[in-house]
From TrEMBL, chain A:
The keyword Iron applies. SUPFAM superfamilies: Transmembrane di-heme cytochromes. Residues 1-29 form the signal peptide. Its cofactor is heme. Its EC number is 1.2.1.2. One of its GO terms (biological process) is anaerobic respiration. It comes from Solemya velum gill symbiont. The chain crosses the membrane at residues 112-133, 154-176, 203-220, 256-277, 289-313. It is a multi-pass membrane protein. This is Formate dehydrogenase subunit gamma. NCBIfam families: formate-DH-gamm. Belongs to the formate dehydrogenase gamma subunit family. Keywords: Cell membrane, Electron transport, Heme, Iron, Membrane, Metal-binding, Oxidoreductase, Signal, Transmembrane, Transmembrane helix, Transport.
Automatic annotation (TrEMBL), chain B:
InterPro entries: NarG-like_sf. The chain crosses the membrane at residues 12-34, 67-89, 109-129, 141-163, 175-198. Keywords: Membrane, Transmembrane, Transmembrane helix. This is Nitrate reductase gamma subunit. It comes from the Bacteria.
Length: 377, 213
């Protein structure tokens, strides 16, 4: 079942990727070639375009060759703080030019994209490296299971996970595509591909927020800190110990992930809505700030999720919890001993059969977890 | 060439398969008839049938209590999809262009986007419930999953083409919609039409016996 679900999810992601790739298919290329029928260009004087061309060239031009319009730009920049008057009452109406946009562009191109990309690649490299480390099972399977998540919790988790993965894919296309995909695919393909990614991103953003709210209320009660969490943290989660540390329903690492997801999720949602409804913002600078917060939060959240997915796939028995809702009793005993004892006392351990309602609540011995097995994790 | 094929012959073919297939299946159901009921009816069967058609739009209290999620998700998806199909301005323009029907008022764009998001969230939650709940998982076959994913991709590609500036995106959406039209009569998507027949049958039968179904 797990393998089937995993394969199914991979196939679905591949189909989505193929659909987005189709966006730049030869259909568009064909039509755009047809559109390129020889048409005589009309020479329309455009002083604005000349100014912007001059602005773009201002860095490389020698002072003696400087375009005369560059001087206008420099003047405007120097006088940008001078109070101006305008009949318009909209935000930034009295600002002749917003120099912070240029600073934002430089920051995005020279800091955010290279460092953000490096961080993502580093996360992937760490995960790929760790996948070569041989991990032995930290528990032996029993014929007993415990219900860990109810169906609404599973739906809440996967709704958020699915929307987040789609947003991550389309967001990465928007952030890095111009520098990575455009040179490979050409502008015809990339323009349609980026347009599809942008529309999809805008659409699924609010769905992610909706999922985040559901997810928060479904799991917050189980993620409140407990004194044993500080012990868990102080002993580095028992990483260098043979015996697993005591943990409740979630251990400190899982609780940290939950709160980070909520924190970055809120940052992404607030900044995302600010970008979606940018015309309602009081100023342009706030919109620029929102795009930076959005991108930084997204990159950090994607790095976290890469680690989360790796842990879920590489730790035996963990995917069962979030695909079927049931976990092996020995898995619970090894990783969440306090919760296991609670379930045992409440009689919620049942046999691993399709219809085990008759056996629910019966106490059946569970195999002891050996120190060697637990230490291997 | 591909665009011309999708816009022309394949459109004609898919609409034909849809129309003929749906009519054929509905006529097949009607031709099955109903077994004769010799008992004196306690109540008019027609009224009972209509009452059941309408009353079943509301989930029973036990279902609302035990499976609220799927009730809410189901409504989000179905109402959202209905609104998108018939009140999204691009779709209205399409019907006017292809079928020559008079235009009607569409949703404003903000409501169109909001409706699409509600429909998406509902569809995804309904499908997740289908695969996560042990009972619905066992009841669901390849046909149900194909229908769900085909509808999802039709909706998704439609939203990816929202800018309406790239013909490739429009053609992709149109192609998937045509595949859905072809698949429709042979799948459980036929419940779009057959739900009324089955509810009416139950309601009329029970109505004649004086049972409030």
């Amino acid at each position: 079942m797990n393998v089937a679900v995993r394969h199914g999810l991979i196939q679905i992601l591949v189909v989505i990727a193929c659909l987005l790739l189709f966006a730049g298919s030869p259909v568009h290329a064909q039509s755009s070639q047809d559109d390129k029928a020889p048409v005589s260009p009309i020479d329309v004087p455009n002083p604005g375009a000349e100014l912007w061309n001059a602005v773009r060239e201002r860095g490389g031009a020698e002072p003696t060759q400087q375009h005369p319009l560059t001087a206008i730009w420099e003047d405007v920049l120097q006088q940008q703080d001078t109070a101006a008057k305008s009949q318009a009452r909209s935000a930034d109406a009295t600002s002749m030019i917003n120099a912070s946009g240029d600073q934002w562009r430089q920051l995005r191109r020279e800091q955010l994209i290279p460092y953000g990309g490096a961080l993502l690649l580093l996360s992937l490299a760490i995960v790929i490296g760790l996948s070569f480390v041989k991990r032995t099972a930290h528990y032996s399977e029993s014929d007993m299971i415990i219900r860990r998540f109810k169906v609404p919790s599973l739906v809440g988790h996967w709704l958020m996970a699915g929307s987040m993965l789609f947003l991550a894919f389309t967001g990465l296309v928007l952030l890095f595509g111009r520098f990575t995909l455009l040179p490979l695919t050409g502008s015809d393909f990339f323009s349609a591909f980026a347009s599809a990614s942008k529309e999809g991103h805008d659409l699924f953003g609010p769905i992610f927020t909706f999922a985040l709210i559901i997810f928060f209320f479904q799991f917050v009660s189980k993620n409140m800190l407990h004194y044993r969490d500080f012990v868990w943290m102080a002993r580095l989660g028992g990483l260098f110990e043979k015996k697993p540390l005591k943990a409740g329903f979630f251990n400190f690492g899982e609780k940290t992930l939950f709160w980070l997801v909520i924190f970055f999720g809120i940052a992404l949602s607030v900044s995302g809505f600010a970008i979606l409804f940018q015309n309602l913002l009081p100023g342009r600078d706030l919109m620029l700030l929102a795009t930076l917060v959005h991108a930084v939060s997204a990159i950090l959240l994607i790095c976290l999720v890469i680690g989360h997915i790796f842990m879920a796939l590489s730790t035996k028995g963990t995917m069962d919890a979030i695909t079927t809702g049931d976990v092996d009793a020995n898995w619970a005993k090894a990783d969440h001993s306090v919760w296991y004892e609670q379930m045992k006392e409440a009689g919620h351990i049942r046999k691993r059969i399709a219809h085990a309602s008759d056996d629910a609540g019966k106490e059946i011995p569970v195999a002891e977890v050996s120190a060697e097995q637990t230490g291997a994790s | 060439m591909f665009t011309d094929f999708i816009d022309g012959p394949f459109w004609t073919f898919s609409v034909s398969v849809f129309a003929i297939g749906v009519i054929w299946r509905l006529i097949s159901i009607i031709r099955l008839g109903v077994p004769g009921d010799l008992a004196v009816p306690r109540e008019d069967g027609g009224a009972g049938g209509m009452r059941t058609i309408l009353s079943r739009f509301m989930a029973r209290p036990a279902v609302r209590k035990r499976a609220l999620l799927i009730v809410v998700a189901g409504y989000m998806f179905h109402v959202g999809l209905f609104a998108l199909l018939f009140f999204a301005q691009p779709h209205i323009d399409f019907y006017v262009d292809r079928f020559g029907v008079p235009a009607w008022a569409g949703m404003p764009r903000w409501l169109f986007i909001l409706t699409a998001e509600i429909a998406f969230a509902g569809l995804i939650m309904a499908w997740l419930y289908r695969v996560m709940h042990p009972v619905t998982r066992m009841l669901s076959g390849i046909g149900e999953h194909t229908a769900s994913w085909l509808v999802f991709f039709v909706m998704l590609t439609g939203c990816l083409a929202l800018l309406e500036q790239y013909d490739s995106l429009r053609v992709l959406h149109f192609f998937l919609a045509e595949l859905l039209l072809i698949y429709f009569p042979f799948s459980s998507l036929m419940h779009t039409f057959t739900f009324a027949f089955s509810r009416n049958y139950t309601g009329a039968t029970m109505g004649r016996r004086g049972v409030d179904a």
